[in-house]
Amino acid sequence: MRIIRGISNLRGDDHNCVVTIGNFDGVHLGHQAMLAEVKKASVALDCPSLLICFEPQPKEFFDEYKAPARLTRFREKVSLLKQCGIDRLLCLKFNEETRGVSAAEFVSLLVDDLSAKALYVGDDFRFGSDRTGDFSMLQQAGEQFGFQVSNFYTFTFERERVSSTRIRVCLAAGHFSEAETMLGHPYSIAGRVARGRQLGRTIGVPTANIQLHRYKAPLSGVYAVEITGLASDRYGVANVGVRPTIDGDTIRPILEVHIFDFDADIYGHYIEIIFRKKIREEKKYDGLEALKEAISKDMKEARQFFLLDA
Q1: Domains along the chain?
Q2: Cα dihedral 120→126→127→132 (10° resolution)
Q3: Could you tell me the mean pLDDT of each successive run of 10 residues in the chain, 310 residues long?
Q4: Burial degree of 15 (CB within 10 A; 0-12, 13-18, 19+)
């Protein structure tokens, strides 16, 4: 899959494509079903498939603090889209200029810049400045300029719509099995191990730290986790949050993972943390000794969950 950053980087072989548009946060089963149709159409029409997304996501641009927590960061989303067989990812920067693009100008992008042969959108898709464009407008444009427009209807699980919002609710509650069913894969967070303050080592619990680079995470608390990306898969206990006992006033959450029976230097390694069980909420303790005691209990529960002491 080729990543195209901005319209100016489009090439001749990016034209005459089957297009879809959206955030595709989490690339859940509903997204996967739509992308399968996009790929099917691109094969039938003998042309590339192209997905348009925005960075930052529009809601993050308008208010990063109040925007929904991302299920997947950009790199994670790219990996999942590759697995769906998408040929091109056109990433457009969302800023004041993008915000002011009219619905008619957006249609022009589809016609003049992409020469779209077909377009697939969700049943609630809106576009253009102040969200004035809708499916009816796209249908009219398709008839005028000669491209197919398909409205992909809601994908359901247990009679409820599969959505990124619903998955966030499941993750916040620790319902990982239900989230996995809707995602089509276990929920995980991936990233490079960064150097922290190494306070964990002072209490006998060294951690691998992953900066989330956002104001919200889709979950918070202490978890039993699997770790992949090392020489062999490992198990451990993870904390996602703002570390109230240590930092107190930190705004941005961080992911810290203590890997069981492991003591290698993995700074800079790209690892994936798969969440399996929620142990407890994050809590502020009265000093490091109380925190150390709580972590010891967390580690024991996680080891029991993975049957490591059986």
Answers
A1: 2-157 (3.40.50.620), 186-305 (2.40.30.30)
A2: 140
A3: 95 94 94 95 97 93 88 94 96 92 94 96 86 92 94 82 94 96 96 80 82 87 97 95 66 90 92 97 84 91 88
A4: middle
